[in-house]
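Quick one: RlpA-like protein double-psi beta-barrel domain-containing protein from Zooshikella ganghwensis, structure tokens please.
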Amino acid sequence: MSGIRQYLSYASLLLLMITINQSYASAWYQQTYKGQASYYHANGTGNCSFSPSPQNLNVVALNNRDYQRSNSCGAFIEVEGPKGKAIVRVVDRCPGCKPGGLDLSKQAFQQVADLRQGRVPVRWRFIPGNVTGNIQVKFTKGTGGRFLALTVLNHKYPVRSVALRNGQGQWFELQRKPYNIFVRRARFGQGPFTLRLTDIRNEVRLTPIHIKRGQHVTTEVQF
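--- reply ---
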């Protein structure tokens, strides 16, 4: 009987920890922030390991706190400044920015303030991304054998976690690096493989996936 009580106590504690963690994730995403915005000459690349995006340079580098060790990568932000509003995508980290601070692309800064101002106070918040199509996965060139490394792209909400299931039903949780690449070393077994994607709201999507070294793969899902 004592063993059952101990198990139930452990299960209750685990459920409480999950609930607290989910509440924190929701609160972090739903806040409105204040800070100073500056600008830089962006090309869409940065610490989030994304490719250049010359067709859309409404991007931003986030301060260390709000970058959240890359958890904010790919998130969309609505920024309001003295001149107006801009919607930007998180692609980089700004080590020199104070908490709440943003380093906007030159193109985005011009929408919220005059360039001559250089630095202005702003308010900003995370918003769902107006993306087209399904989530994409980019496998690194180092992927192969017992090593898996990937970046998740084109997601409506920030990605919280990634896991891979093999054809035998075994799950492998991937570890997120501060540069926004999910990695795992393991004996992955045989396919077919399934990818589990969880967003900041704890919404889960399952999609079949073909592992292709160094290539982009479009999934069957979106948040």
